[in-house]
Design brief:
Strand content: over 45%
Strand order of the largest sheet: 6-5-4-3-2-1-13-12-11-10-9-8-7
Number of domains: 1
CATH superfamily: Lipoprotein localisation LolA/LolB/LppX
Structural class: mainly beta
Oligomer: single chain
Largest sheet: 13 strands, antiparallel
Low-confidence stretches: 1-19
Order of helices and strands: HEEEEEEHEEEEEEE
Amino acid sequence: MNRFRFLALLLVGLPVAASAQVAGGEEMSAEQVIDRVLMSRALQNAEELKGSFSKGKTTVPFTIRLDKDLIRFTFDKPKQVISLNVTEKGARLTEEVAGGKAQPVATKRYAEGVRGTDLSYDDLSQRFLYWPKKVRAGTETIQTRKCDVVDLYNPDNLGEYYLVRVFADRESGGMLRMMGYDRGGKLIKTCAVTSGMKLKSGATVLKSMEILRHEAGSRKVAGETTLELRKP
C-alpha cells in the first residue's frame, strides 16, 4: 500500500478508482475494505482548519493542522496539543507535556473523552482500523449510500471496545459510520458523519459529525457530542 494519511474520524474520503469487486466478480474481503478506508484518507497538501466540539451548553474550539503524516489538534484554556502520527503499520497518538515534549497517550486513557466530550482517545486514534481480526458483515445503505460493513475485533482488551463495526462507502472507500461494542456485545458508541465539505486541495472532509454514547445494550442516548469543522 502507498503511504497515506487520515484525519482521525474526520475524513469522509476521496473518490478512488478501486471497485467494490475484485477479479472474478467477487466481493472485496474485509482486509480490502479496510485498506480502501485507509487509502481514502489521502491528502496531497497541508491544510489547517478550525473546529469545535459541542456538548450541551459547552463548546470547545480547536485548530487542526494536517501536514504530511502528522495531524495536530490544538486546544486552549488550558492549552493542550494532541498529535496523531500515521504510518502504514499503525497510528501513534501523543500529547505534549511540560517543555513541549511529546509522550504517548497512556493506554488507561483510551476510553477517556477528549476535553470532556463523548469522543474518546480511542476514537481519535482509530487504532481499531489496524486490529488484525477483520470479518466482513455484509452491506448496508446509509442515506442512499451503499456501504460495505466490517467487524474489527480488539486483540489486546485495552480501551472500551471489544468490537468496532465500520461502515465504508462503497464508492469512495471513506468511513461514514462506526459503532463500538463492549465485551458483552452491547452497543456503547456510534459516530456518524452528517455532512462534508471540499478543501482547496480537492479532498473531501467532514463538515459535521455526531457522536452518541449509548446506555450499554440499548439505543438510548446517554451522551451526545457534535463535531464541526470550517475553513479558516
